[in-house]
Specification:
It is an enzyme of class 3 (hydrolase). It comes from Phyllotreta striolata. Pathway: Protein modification; protein glycosylation. The chain is mainly α and 584 residues long. It has a domain of 68 residues. Helix content is 49%, strand content 10%. The strands form 9 sheets. It has a 3-stranded antiparallel sheet with strand order 5-6-7. Strands 14-15-16 form a 3-stranded antiparallel sheet, with no helix packed on it. α7 packs antiparallel against α8 and α18 runs parallel beside α20. The longest helix is centred in the first third of the chain and has 41 residues.
Length: 584
């Protein structure tokens, strides 16, 4: 027992000899009084630190017990019932949701889809390495980027090639996981084995780190599933399943619309720190991956969680199929007066409407109907032509649709490829004309810059009375290039569906732009100014999507076999990870 009184320390030590006890107390008191004031203070601090240390240890044990109980509750909440009971699962999840008749019919068939999968892929896909000079140039670029990443950022998310260090966003080795299927497709066996080895031994999801549901789904979950389908390596599927189980609590909101962020260790989801709302594109760009995981594991819980989101969004009121870019996970409602755009925070909502329909063998008509309505909405509200040359572009609606802004993100340049994919799958032929018009405009955003690299954002002139008309212009703050893939993605779709070598020529010019203005000693870097070839202002960042998407699409584009990755067998997620098409 520790007893503080009268400015001395009394240590009561139990003993059967009471006289000895008194002598020890007198001795301790005398020793204490002989100490200097500094020594007394030091001793008191040490005793207090020991006490606080013991109390903190006991408190941590209590917190660990609470955390364990919390995780058990979360796991129980998202545990799957016996698979024999699965027909009730979809109806249970939707008991408070009113749905249209056709959507109800679709939901009743969900378990059968998971049980009776028929995949369009027959046999193992074989990728034998580059067969053309342009493909070889892309492989050389990949190996250059990989060498720098391996030397200065191995196991981390992104390479900073100029400062010879790394950036960690989530701490999940994003560049490795994101690039595995690229290396497989390119036939880079040594690099692939290095990456596979790291994933098996070091990819750990049991980390006290907040991650973004959307980004981790398209990059990590999508990357693991894609390489699982190519390699048939069960290790990747095991990792994918573990990750998905840690992400599932995001769907536990009151509305069923997922929270945007989650801590991988505590499995506690939450809204982003900067807003109470989730981004619409983020909560609607996770369906391909979770559905695929259900199909390969036979466990319907992943598909049910994400398909419920699609059903809820389907039910909400929209502006001729167009959606605001923010939605609240608690209320399940769009934010009033939010921007409507096909660019950032809106883009992949429209992409995944079509791709989900394709992924499921064109069986989910509500998705197709929403997609077709959205294209009509784009044509009605967002489509304009520039002055004086009449370039077709897609602008934005501000204040909930009241004000048009003649601005287009580079992200929007994914749309020509998506439109072409829709036409390939039997949707209206007039979508092809729109795809060609938008593709040409996107190409001009590259061709009109001295670097032959597009800016992040382009503004357009729609005023015919302008005395010095210029169709498009770039503001200084928007002149950066992040090594993005969207336009090259569209070129690949167009080339695969037409065989027109013009699209390869355009892609080669862009590749040369990357080589001339973004290649540095240890990799590739985003740049701050595409408008000045003499001073591009390197930004010292190589994000994982450069290897996962940009170089992969360039490699596929330059193939002498347009069917190297067959669009009748694969649907490609928003991070360029191919997943199989199911025929039901």
């Amino acid at each position: 027992m520790v007893d503080f009184r009268n400015d001395y320390l009394s240590l009561n030590v139990p003993s059967v000899d009471s006289s000895g006890d008194k002598r020890r107390k007198i001795h301790l008191k005398r020793s204490w009084n002989q100490l200097s004031k500094c020594q007394k203070t030091t001793l008191l601090c040490c005793v207090l630190m020991i006490i606080f240390g013991i109390l903190n240890f006991l408190n941590q044990k209590d917190e660990a017990l609470v955390l364990a109980n919390t995780n058990e509750q979360l796991e129980s909440k998202y545990a799957v019932k016996n698979f024999i009971e699965a027909p009730k699962l979809v109806e249970d999840a939707l008991e408070h949701v009113e749905l249209k008749k056709d959507v109800e019919l679709e939901s009743k068939s969900l378990r059968n889809n998971v049980e009776n999968n028929h995949v369009a892929i027959k046999g193992d896909s074989k990728f034998l390495g580059p067969t053309t000079d342009k493909q070889k140039a892309v492989v050389k670029a990949f190996k250059h980027a990989w060498k720098g990443y391996k030397k200065f950022a191995w196991g981390h998310d992104h390479l900073k090639p100029i400062s010879e260090t790394y950036n960690d966003w989530f701490g999940l080795g994003l560049t490795i996981v994101d690039s595995l299927d690229t290396m497989f497709i390119m036939g880079l066996k040594d690099e692939y084995n290095e990456g596979r080895d790291w994933v098996e031994k070091h990819l750990n999801f049991d980390i006290n780190r907040d991650v973004n549901l959307f980004e981790v789904t398209i990059r990590v979950l999508g990357g693991l599933l894609s390489i699982y389908h190519f390699s048939k390596d069960d290790m990747f599927l095991k990792k994918a399943t573990e990750l998905a189980d840690r992400l599932l609590p995001c769907f536990g909101s009151e509305s069923g619309i997922p929270y945007s962020d989650i801590n991988l260790f505590t499995r506690k989801p939450h809204a982003p720190k900067w807003s109470p709302d989730s981004s619409t594109s983020e909560v609607t760009t996770i369906q391909l991956e979770f559905r695929d995981l259900s199909r390969v594991t036979g466990n319907p819980k992943y598909e049910e969680a994400v398909y419920n989101v699609s059903r809820l969004i389907h039910k909400l009121e929209k502006k001729d199929g167009l959606v605001p870019i923010f939605i609240n996970a608690n209320t399940g409602q769009f934010r009033s007066y939010a921007t409507i755009t096909i660019g950032a925070r809106g883009d992949s909502y429209y992409e995944y409407l079509l791709k989900q329909w394709v992924q499921t063998g064109k069986m989910l008509d509500s998705l197709k109907d929403d997609y077709l309505e959205s294209i009509r909405g784009i044509e009605k509200h967002l489509l304009r032509k520039t002055e004086p040359n009449g370039y077709v572009f897609i602008g934005e609606l501000l204040a909930g649709g009241k004000e048009f802004k003649p601005k287009m993100d580079h992200l929007t340049c994914y749309l020509p490829g998506t439109l072409a994919l829709g036409v390939h799958n039997g949707l209206p032929n007039e979508h092809w004309t729109l795809a060609l018009d938008l593709l040409n405009t996107c190409y001009q955003t590259y061709a009109q810059q001295p670097t032959f690299l597009a800016p992040e954002i382009t503004y357009f002139n729609i005023q015919s009375e302008n005395t010095k008309p210029k169709d498009m212009y770039v503001k200084s703050n928007d002149a950066h290039n992040l090594l993005r893939p969207e336009f090259i993605e569209s070129l690949w779709y167009m080339y695969q569906l037409t065989g027109n070598a013009t699209y390869q020529d355009w892609g080669w010019r862009i590749f040369r732009g990357f080589e001339n203005y973004t290649r540095v000693l240890n990799g590739y870097t985003s740049i701050g100014n595409v408008k000045n070839a003499a001073n591009v202002r390197p930004k010292d960042m190589m994000e994982s999507f450069f290897l996962s998407e940009t170089l992969k699409y360039l490699y596929l584009l330059f193939s002498d076999d347009p069917k190297l990755l067959d669009l009748d067998k694969f649907v490609v997620n928003s991070e360029a990870h191919p997943l199989p098409i199911y025929l039901n």
